[in-house]
Amino acid sequence: DPTIFSSPTRMSNVILKIGDQQLHVSKEYLAVHSPVFEAMFFGNFEENGRKEVVIKDVVYEEFLDLLHLIYFKSLVITDRIVVHILKLADRFQMEDVMELTKKHLIQSKGINAAKKLLIADQYRLDSVRDHCLQSFTSFVNLMKELKLTPECDNLSKDMKSAIYDRFSKI
């Protein structure tokens, strides 16, 4: 329900402004799930004590997905939303949410291994990287899949090293 955070409740004590939208949330609840929000609301930052806090560089609907996930555990992570949930979990250092996204990526059949390697590289998800690399029986098969995904030209040195390590042991 997208309207659940649109008006104040007795549990909400701060308004997050995302663009021209407002979300009424609990500082304490967000702080429990995120050291970034904990520092923002209870540390020596300008947001401490404010009734409204602007959150920049976030898509409202994507942040709403994140809130539904942490507040109600009602959101199922799917291939369609895993990257934006992961991006927000990384930004706000939400370890529990990061674990859920890793689990989804490892189990997903709808995201190819090359795309998973890109995501693992970008967000430093070693368990996802290792799982993907183990799924390839040969270096040739991996290279074929990577060539089909042009973004793989930009893999980090760490990822390239992990690929080398995986296949140098065969």
TrEMBL record:
Residues 12-79 form the BTB domain. Pfam families: BTB. InterPro entries: BTB/POZ_dom, SKP1/BTB/POZ_sf. PANTHER family: BTB AND MATH DOMAIN-CONTAINING PROTEIN 36-RELATED. This is BTB domain-containing protein. It comes from Pristionchus entomophagus. The lineage of its organism: Eukaryota, Metazoa, Ecdysozoa, Nematoda, Chromadorea.
